[in-house]
Design goal:
The protein has about 550 residues and is of the alpha/beta class. It is built from 19 helices and 27 strands. A seven-stranded mixed β-sheet has the order 2-6-5-3-4-9-8, sandwiched between helices. Strands 20-21-24-25-26-19-27 form a seven-stranded antiparallel β-sheet. The chain binds 1-O-phosphono-alpha-D-glucopyranose and zinc ion (ZN).
Length: about 550
């Protein structure tokens, strides 16, 4: 067994995006591609000799192979121990939980989240720091700089490690511990929520359906919902993780979680439905024939937090990403707690939570979480909802309607234009930016533009500045149109248009969001010249 130093050449495209490095599997399978990036991580994070690393992924195609490579590289780079989830499986929130619980130096998570998997699908890798959260922009930028100058990497020449049996082995001088990926996480969940109350609710005939979308959360959901909380077997559907997610797109929204949506809108609909994504950090919440937008869900969790054992003392503050609707801002105001507006991506919440400034945070993209870990957490959101339902004993729909009646409704929708030619997408952004001066104070139907800007964020904890985080057109009636380019796509460019309008009048709360936002959508298309510049007259996905 010897350490080999392999000569290599830099790849120019290893810049981490919104959440780590995401590329097509064939890109990752090029000789040295993964190795270069892993060595760049190790060279940037300066882990002391003998440090412990957590390792695992969402089980997608290439997960197992990547894990073997990373283990051998960790051994050759002086790590003392790696904790690997059995079978290479570890959901993103569980990875965060384990990093924190065992106070490790950090972890490497293999996932492309909600993107499809398989030999021609997507793969991804990211580093999480000792707080359990995604590396900050300073670290990801350092990794990118290293990747552009790399000339060699170190790897141990040795046999593969058995990943399917719990226990310890050694790799060179490094310990490899294969652990149960579910138990630490399940224990943490049980410490946060009132499990006896949820158990009673589920015994009373309250029916639930959870769609794991053949992704990583299957085993977690079965353990928590069926085993520990007593939901009937079968309450978890698509519960076996598959390398290609069964050919599906593991993104929990109304378009891709269609199996669940059909059930929840059907004649025999259960009382509560939920789904999570590829790596288990996203969530979608449904009532009987009723969809809860992620922005509303965040606001509602904040408003009801004191019903939950873990949050009964109240919240220090809340945070949302800039494109997320301002529904939670209204709750924060009523609770008299601070509300932070951050750029898109979970890495911006970490500092705020570490500094004790926020307890709950979320994004419009089906992500919600709290300071129990430093990632968004799909099953945590599901349990939070079940705990509220167990206490309030009302339907999902009536809880949401009561919330709107009290705080007003923030109608919200996101239009995604995927796979655009990069030039056309950049052209739309540039055109809008150029037109900021002419847009200000302009009236469109009932809406008057108050300001437009390119969102920039100064981290209140470390003072770091993140610029160019999305174009905001803000209207005087609290409605907003946001344009932003995705940082997670792997093909061409994805342009996202976020639309929001505030409505205080209860008599209009029953409106369909698309109906309520009709005029804003027209304005967005009009001022951006999106259709003529991209040749698309319909978005790929509307959420
Ligand atoms: C998307 C979401 C963003 C989320 C990220 C990772 O990023 O919009 O909210 O944090 O996935 O799950 P985007 O593709 O927009 O850069
Ligand atoms: Zn995800």
């Amino acid at each position: 067994m010897s350490i080999r130093t392999v000569s290599t050449q830099p790849f120019p495209d290893q810049k981490p995006g919104t959440s780590g490095l995401r590329k097509k599997v064939p890109t990752f399978r090029q000789p040295h591609y993964l190795e270069n990036f892993v060595q760049s991580i190790f060279d940037s994070i300066a882990a002391p000799q003998g440090s412990t690393l957590v390792l695992g992924g969402d089980g997608r195609y290439y997960n197992r192979l990547a894990i073997q490579i990373i283990l051998k590289m960790a051994a050759a780079n002086g790590f003392g121990q790696v904790l690997v989830g059995r079978g290479g499986i570890l959901s993103t929130p569980a990875a965060s939980c384990v990093i924190r619980k065992y106070k490790t130096f950090g972890g490497i998570i293999l996932s492309a989240s909600h993107n499809p998997g398989g030999p021609d699908g997507d793969f991804g890798i990211k580093f999480n720091s000792s707080n359990g959260g995604p590396a900050t922009e300073t670290v990801t930028e350092a990794i990118y700089v290293k990747s552009k100058a790399i000339s060699s990497y170190r790897i141990l020449d040795t046999e593969d490690v058995m990943l399917d049996k719990l226990g310890e082995t050694t790799l060179g001088g490094m310990k490899v511990k294969v652990f149960d990926p579910v138990s630490d996480y399940a224990e943490l969940m049980e410490s946060l929520f009132d499990f006896p109350a949820i158990r009673t609710l589920l015994k009373s005939g309250f029916k639930i359906k959870f769609d794991a979308m053949h992704a990583v959360n299957g085993p977690y959901a079965k353990e928590l919902l069926e085993k520990r909380l007593g939901a009937p077997v079968g309450s978890v559907m698509n519960g076996v993780p598959l390398e290609d997610f069964g050919g599906g797109h593991p993104d929990p929204n109304l378009t891709y979680a269609h199996d669940l949506v059909e059930i929840m809108y059907g004649a025999e609909a259960p009382d509560f439905g939920a789904a999570s994504d590829g790596d288990g950090d996203r969530n979608m919440i449904l009532g009987k024939r009723f969809f809860v937008t992620p922005s509303d869900s965040l606001a509602l969790l904040a408003a009801n937090a004191t019903l939950i054992p873990a949050y009964k003392q109240g919240l220090a503050g809340v945070a949302r990403s800039m494109p997320t609707s301002a529904a939670v801002d209204r709750v924060a105001k009523a609770l008299n707690i601070p509300c932070y507006e951050t750029p898109t991506g979970w890495k911006f919440f970490g500092n705020l939570m570490d500094a004790g400034k926020v307890t709950l945070c979320g994004e419009e993209s089906f992500g919600t979480g709290s300071n129990h870990v430093r990632e968004k957490d799909g099953l945590w959101a599901v349990l939070f909802w079940l705990n509220i339902l167990a206490v309030r004993k009302q339907s999902v729909e009536s809880i949401v309607r009561e919330h709107w009646a009290r705080f007003g409704r923030n109608f919200y929708s996101r239009y995604d234009y995927e796979g655009l030619p990069t030039e056309a997408a950049n052209g739309v952004i540039q055109h809008l930016r150029d037109n900021f001066p002419t847009l200000t104070n302009k009236q469109f139907g009932n809406h008057t533009v108050q300001t437009c800007d390119d969102f920039s964020y100064t981290d209140p904890v470390d003072g770091s500045i993140s610029k160019g985080q999305g174009l905001r057109i803000l209207f005087s009636d609290d409605s907003r149109i946001i344009f932003r380019l995705s940082g997670t796509g792997t093909e061409g460019a994805t342009l996202r248009v976020y639309l929001e309008a505030y409505e205080a009048d209860v008599s209009r709360h029953h409106l369909d969001a698309q109906e309520a936002l009709k005029e804003l959508i027209r304005v967005a298309l009009d001022i951006s010249e999106l259709q003529s510049r991209t040749g698309r007259d319909q978005p790929t996905v509307i959420t």
